[in-house]
Amino acid sequence: MKLRTLIAAACAGVLGTAGLAEDGKVKVGMITTLSGGGAGLGIDVRDGFLLAAKMAGNDNLEVVVEDDQRKPDIAVQLADKMIQSEKVDVLTGIIWSNLAMAVVPSATARGKFYLSPNAGPSMLAGKGCHPNYFNVAWQNDNLHEAAGGYANDAGFENSFILAPNYPAGQDALTGYKRIYDGDLAGELFTKLGQKDYASEIAQIRASDADSVFFFLPGGMGISFLKQYADSGLELPVVGPAFSFDQGILQAVGEAALGVKNTSQWSKDIDNPANREFVAAFEEAYGRLPSLYASQGYDTANLLLSAMEKADIANAEAFRAALKEADFDSVRGDFEFAANNHPIQDIYVREVIKEGEVYTNKITGVALEDHSNVYVDECDM
Amino acid sequence: MRYRAAPGTGGASTLTTILFIEQVLNGLQFGVMLFVMAAGLTLVFGVMGLINLAHGSLYMVGAFAAAAVAGATGSFVLALGAALAAAAGAGALVELLVIRRLYDREHLDQVLATFALILIFSEGTRWMFGSFPLYLDIPDALSGVVTLPGGIQYSLYRLVIIGIGLGIAGFLFWLISRTRLGIRIRAGESDREMIAALGVDISKLYTLVFALGAALAGLAGALVGAIQSVQVGMGEPVLILAFVVIVIGGIGSIKGAFVGALMVGLTDTLGGLLLPGFFRLFMENAAATSTGSALASMLIYILMAVVLVWRPQGLFGPQT
Questions:
Q1: Which of A21, A25, B180, B210 has its CA 20 to 30 A from that of B218?
Q2: ipTM of the shown complex
C-alpha cells in the first residue's frame, strides 16, 4: 500500500514536471546575416544570444538559426518557414532595417513575438508599433541623437555631416540635427556602399567646418576613416558606434585612434552582468565582444527572464513579462518605453589601443535615460 | 531632452578652382583603377568570348593576399607581389578547372557558372580569413599629403596610384601592339578558329590571358584595399562598374577600356560634386542634396545609355 502510493506519487511527480516542461518550452527562430559582406554583425548577434542561452542552461529554450544573406526576400521565406513548419513562438536576429520591415509586421500580425537585437526603424517605433514587437537594441535615431548631444557638449558650432543616401542614412542626419544646436558647414549624402571618399573629404577641406559627423556603417566607415586620416585633415570626428565596433576597429587601425563615438554599450561599463558577459564571451569565442554581441546577449536574457515569469501559451502574460524587462542588462539600467523601445543611457566612447588591440573606452554620458521621439505616434 | 526642427543650413561648400582640380585628380585616380580592373575583363571577353562574373572575386583575392602578407611581413612591396601572384594563380587554376569548359557554351551558362564561382570564392575566403574585415594600410613612405603647384594638397598615395595605373596602361598598349603575345591576342579576338588552325597553342594562350587579367584585378584590389576596406564581397560593386566601362569603351578594346574608365571615373566624381550644387540654385538645401546625390549616382548609367544609343558597339568596339 505504502509502496504503491509512493510509486503513484513518483509517477505523478514525473508526469507533472514533464507536463510543465512541455508547456514552458519556447522555440526561437533566429534569422540573421551569416554570409556575405555584413556577416560579422549577424555572427556576433548569434554568438551573443547563444552564449546567454548556454549560460542560463534552460532546457526549455530551443533556438533555430538561419542565414538571410542580407536579402529581404530570403528573410521573408525563412520567416514563413519558421512560423509554418518549425512552429516557432518567437522570432529574432534581423540586423538590417529593410529586412526587419519585410518580416516583422507580418510575423507580429500572426501572433508571434519579435525581439529585435539590432534594427530599429522609425516605422516600427511610431505608427507601425505592435504589442508583440520589442526592440532590445535602440531606435535607429538614438545613437545619432547622442552624437548631436556630444557635439553640443564639445562646443562644436559648424559641423560637416554626411551619411549614405538610404532611409537609415537620412534618419541619421535627422537624428543628429534634432539635438545638435550649431550650424552646418555642409550636408552630404553619399552612395550606399561607396568606398572612395576623396571627393567628400575635399569638400570638407574646402568648407569652414570645425567638426565632422558621419554615419557610414561597416566597410564604408573603414574606408572613410583611413582616407580621412591620410588626408591630413585634423578636425574632430564623431559618429555612432557602428563604424567603431570591435569587429571592424582592427581593420581601421591607427586611423581610428582618439575618435569619439556614441554607444549604448561598451566593454568597460562597470557592472557585474557586463563583466561576466565580457569574460564569458572572450573565453567562449576567443575574441572581444562587440556592440552586436552585447545586443544578442541582452535579447536572450530578456527572453529568459520572461520565460521564468510566464508561459508563452498565455500571450498576454508573456507580453507583460517581456515588458517588465526584469533582467540584468549588460548596459546597466534598462527599461522599455511605451512603444517597447529601450530607455537607456547612451555613452561617449573614445577609440584607444590596449596592447595590440584597438578598442573603446567610455569618456562620458552623451544622453541620460534617453527614449525616442516616436513614442507619441505609437498607439497601442 | 530637446527636440527641435533642423537648424538653418550652412549651405554648400563653395566651389573653388583648387577644389575642382582636386576632384579632377580624384576622378583620374578612380578612373585608372577602374581601367586596371576592366582591362582583364575586356581582354577575356574579347579573346575568349567569355563573360566572367568572377573577375570581382579575383580583385578580392588580391586584396586579401596583400593584407595577409603585409600583416605577416610588414612590407607593402611584398604585399603587392603576393597580390599579383595569388590572383594570377587563382585565375590560372580557375581557367584550367572551370572556365575551359565554358568557351563553347552559351553566355547564360557562363554567367551561371561564374556566378557560382563568386559564391565559392566568397565563402572560401570567409572560411580562411573569417567574417571580419582585414587590416591593410598605406605604407608609411607613401602616407600623407603633398602640396602641388597652385597650393593643391593631394594624397601622395593617390598620386602613386595614378602613376601605377598609367604605367600599366602603357605596358598593356606595348604588349598588345608590339609583342608576339599581343599579335596572338589580337588574332584571337578576330578569329579564334583560324589562329588555332595556324598552329598557335590556343589553350595555353587562353590560360595566359586569363591569368594576366586576374593578376591586374588582384593588383587593383591590393592598391585600392589599402585606402578602402578589405572584406568579403568587396569585388562585386567594382565588377559592375568595370562592366559599365567595357560596355562604354567597346568590348574587347583596351583603348576603349582606358577611355571608358576615365570617363566613368570623372563623371562619377565630378557629378557627385557639381550636381547637388546645381540643384541648390533653385531648391532648398536638404532636398537639393538628396536629389543631386541620387542623380549623381545614376549619372554613369545615363552616360552608358547615351553612348549606347549613339554607338551601340561602344566607343572603340568592333564594327558589326
A1: B180
A2: 0.79
